[in-house]
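Dear colleague,

Thank you for sharing your sequence with our group. We've completed the structure prediction you requested, and as agreed, I am returning the results in plain text so they can be pasted directly into your records. Please verify that the sequence below matches your submission; if there's any discrepancy, let me know and we will rerun it promptly.
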Amino acid sequence: MVHKGYKDVITPFPVDSGNGALALKHWNVQADLIYIDAAHDYEYVKIDFFRYSELLREGGYILIDDWHHNPIKTAAKEVFGDKVFDYYGKAVWIK
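Please find the predicted structure tokens below.
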């Protein structure tokens, strides 16, 4: 991303999703778009959804990868309710 000139828009941050969310919260980051492609374990996914939803601006989007995995669907429905929907094999939640 840096070499392509996107450093003002996208910042690579190579850490695990849990520590990433905690660091971003500490820095008071508010995002317009968050793409989650992390663990497939129900507990980890549910925690990620909750933590990252707190970092999202009102009207922002969370895109969820690997929507075909049942633990991801279950966690998303519990955290986001009926406001999460399938979009071409991914899922979307709008805050």
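Summary note from our side: The mean pLDDT is 91.

Kind regards,
the structure core
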